[in-house]
Amino acid sequence: MNNWNDNEYGFNSAVQAENELSLQRYVAAVMRKVYGKMTMGLLLTAITSFMVLSSQTLTNLFFANSFTFWILFAAELGMVIYLSARIDKLSTGAATALFYLYSVINGITLTPIFLVYTGTSIAMTFAITAGTFGAMTLFGYLTKQDLSKFGSFLFMALIGLILCSIVNIFMHNEMLDLIVSGAGVLIFVGLTAWDTQAIKRMCAESDSSMVGKVATMGALSLYLDFINLFLYLLRFFGSRD
Fold first, then answer.
1. Integer distance in angstroms from the first to the last C-alpha of the chain?
2. How far apart are CA 132 and CA 159, in angstroms?
3. Rounded CA gap, 198 and 148, in Å?
4. How far is Cα 38 from Cα 224, in angstroms, rounded to an integer?
5. Per mean pLDDT, which of 52-56, 136-140, 204-208 is the most reliable?
6. What is the pLDDT confidence band of residue 143, given thresholds at 50, 70 and 90?
7. Are 119 and 96 in contact (CB under 8 A)?
8. pLDDT tens, position by position, 193-202
């Protein structure tokens, strides 16, 4: 009787281990899609910025007046809100196309940084950002610690960061700008780890029909973390022409 129970226990353990291994493989496959889409988004942003920068006609078209820039910025904000709110209604292809379109528009709005900072300092900051982002997303993916408890704090800190940034547009206070930049780096370092774990959890809970949409939303979240981390680090490491 004891032997039979031991065998049954061993069988159940083996099945459970196999199920866990299958889940890990499934999550890893979905996460590869997330990182793949995120990387494609970053490439589209970089290519778009380079194309606009290389064409005087495009530069004049988008930056001849500030009104055009604000229209593009509003379009970006609207696309993020729309994609987040309507992801369940959109097809996988439409959601992915919207994310890539956002990446292209963001490439246009980011073009001025190439006019303000030297290429060398931008490349150095990008490398620092990639290393920091890589370390934090790896931590978020591998850690056994539950990071969800930090979500509310990071969200409130992000709201505070946005408000301080808006206030400083009018104040032009260098000390406040330095504080905001440092806080921005810390917040998006934390968000990178938090978002990665949240995306990993979403992957584990999603079925095969939702893989594409989960990958797109995950890619958008990590893309935003990367871009914002890069912009805040650029304030510290960027050298102006």
1. 81
2. 23
3. 8
4. 9
5. 136-140
6. very high
7. no
8. 999 999 999 8
Whole-angstrom distance, CA of residue 204 vs CA of residue 197: 11
**Do residues 98 and 44 make contact, with C-beta atoms less than 8 angstroms apart?**
no
d(Cα 237, Cα 198) in Å, to the nearest integer?
30
Burial of 121 (0-12, 13-18, 19+ CB in 10 A): middle
CA distance 162 to 168: 10
Q: Residue 154 corresponds to which tokens in the numbers above?
A: 């990071």
Which of the two residues, 206 and 212, has the higher pLDDT score? 212
CB 43, CB 100: distance < 8 Å:
no
State how far the Cα of 137 lies from the Cα of 222, in Å rounded to an integer: 9
Token pair 């793949």 is at which residue?
Answer: 36
Domain count, the chain: 1
**Distance (Å, whole) CA 73 – CA 173:** 24
Determine how many CB atoms are found less than 10 A away from the CB of residue 10.
10
Residue 235 CB coordination number (10 Å): 16
Query: Is the Cα torsion angle 31, 204, 129, 47 positive or negative in sign?
Result: positive
Instruction: Answer yes or no: are the C-beta atoms of 105 and 79 closer than 8 Å.
Output: yes
pTM of the model: 0.89
C-alpha to C-alpha distance for 82 and 77, rounded to whole angstroms = 9
* Domain with 198 in it: 2-237
